[in-house]
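Re: your question from the hallway

Yes, I did run it. Sequences:
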Amino acid sequence: MGRVFSGVQPTGNIHLGNYLGAIKQFVDLQDENDCIYCIVDLHAITVEQDPKELREHILDVAALYLAVGIDPKKSIVFVQSKVPQHAELGWLLTCYSYTGELSRMTQFKDKGKGRESVPTGLFMYPTLMAADILLYDTEIVPVGIDQKQHIEITRDLCNRINNKYGEVFVEPDGRFLKEGAKIMALDDPTKKMSKSAANELSKIGLLDDDAKIKKAIMKATTDSEGIVKYDMDNKPGISNLINIYTAFSDLSVEEIEKKYDGVGYGQFKKDLVEVLINGLKPIREKFHEIRNSDELISVLDDGAKRAEAIATEVLKRAYNKIGLGY
Ligand code: AQP
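Structure:
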């Protein structure tokens, strides 16, 4: 049994990458561990957000957490901005971080690309993420492989402070799924699937309707070979689709290759559409049941209370060791 923490930004329709890379693990971990799952709205404002949409997206992510199977009786589910200790510890960690290491973060470089000046919040994203994790004495952080660098800087900050002041924080570790952990954009399989991508057909949201799922898969970029074979380096498009197929069916990669040997991409894609529609339908139905219920708000209120109780103790420990306050 270990302490698990992770979060998702309420920045849009949660897609297959968020689900298969991260959220599916959240559900798997909750029976054996002490899990805390957050909707990280303070992270969302590192890029521009419409206030009304942001509020909607916060509740959407919360409802999706429950719809995919996170059980609030087993796990704490809450919204980051409801627990002020995240921002407090974020500031503290900022004081122990260096501009050099923060400027090497690929997410910062990607999101700031081509801009003369970027919001400071985008630059300090990793120290707030480190605070989210360290605030709960977290041992395991289930995230997509794209977050590896952020986990490393969290560990560095943890060790830097522990080496200076004694045992302040628990050192966390990332939990990444190996095979197929990163789901790529459907229109360009060299880029990761992303909520903020402009092309709607680059992604499939867990709440997308059947017609959109069909259109995105049928138009997904593959190659001209027509051979259903897993080879991420040379055939990233079809390999990405195989990853999605295997995650939503009982078939292994080898079984899928065998099933479509000599058949071509057309039938493969048609079957994948069916597999996805069947896999996402129950999630969508559950989501609509929960989304506007009072139950959702009471789960979040209760989660924030339970999270704050833990966060208060850890922050107090950090302040005492560092000599803050009196
Ligand atoms: N394409 C992906 N494949 C696998 N895992 C992914 N994750 C994101 N994209 C993929 C994982 O989903 C979790 C939640 O992500 P997030 O919302 O905190 O931020 P993100 O990584 O920045 O996700 P997006 O979709 O790309 O959002 P935007 O466009 O808003 O920045 C994380 O564990 C992440 O690893």
